[in-house]
Design brief:
Order of helices and strands: HHHHHHHH
Helix content: 55-70%
Distance between the termini: 55 Å
Number of helices: 8
Shape: globular
Number of domains: 1
Length: 187
């Protein structure tokens, strides 16, 4: 026995190797999540729709309806997959505000075009990842900030309030449902 063999770690016992899955089995076997119960689906539908209708009413009243698409995507995450890191308050609120700031900065530096909007979305995604606040719907917020060129204080205030409202609605919906824990963490 060589010295290398004497000092090599022993192979860890583990499960026996499984047979390879045939291509047909791989195509017909789903790894999708389980279907929700009708009650869970109805609860998600009602809670997400309620908060989005409230946001539409507010957005219409203050003339900011273009915030609805990214906020709708955020609501979908909060109400349908509340355990995901993307759905946590830190990511929802921080992600939207960071992406808006990136979008506003890109607009100020380079103007509004589809090219700068696309660049802002990419920069915003990278920024949220570095800040540990990943929230993919917020990339659309950066695009809106570039294309609209809104007044920064009003835009950030409105967006921050809307993101807090989304999180609050998620907390309330989880408390009412009782079988869902939201949030998994706050900050």
């Amino acid at each position: 026995m060589s010295i290398d063999q004497q000092h090599a770690p022993a192979a860890a016992p583990g499960p026996a190797p499984t047979r390879p899955v045939s291509r047909l089995q791989a195509l017909t076997t789903s790894r999708a999540p389980a279907r929700p119960t009708p009650a869970a689906a109805a609860h998600t539908l009602a809670s997400a729709t309620s908060v989005l209708l409230l946001l539409v009413a507010i957005g219409t009243a203050i003339h900011e309806p273009l915030l609805i698409p990214p906020l709708a995507a955020s609501a979908a995450l909060i109400h349908s997959v509340p355990a995901l890191p993307l759905a946590q308050p830190r990511s929802v609120i921080g992600g939207h505000l960071l992406c808006a700031a990136v979008g506003l900065a890109v607009h100020a530096a380079f103007g509004n075009s589809l090219w700068t909007a696309a660049a802002a979305a990419g920069l915003a995604l990278g920024t949220t990842m570095l800040a540990r606040t990943p929230h993919s719907p917020a990339c659309a917020t950066a695009v809106i900030a570039v294309l609209q060129g809104p007044a920064p204080a009003r835009f950030l205030g409105t967006l921050g309030a809307a993101a807090v409202l989304l999180v609050g609605a998620g907390v309330l919906a989880a408390r009412l449902r009782r079988s869902v824990a939201y949030p998994a963490y706050w900050w």
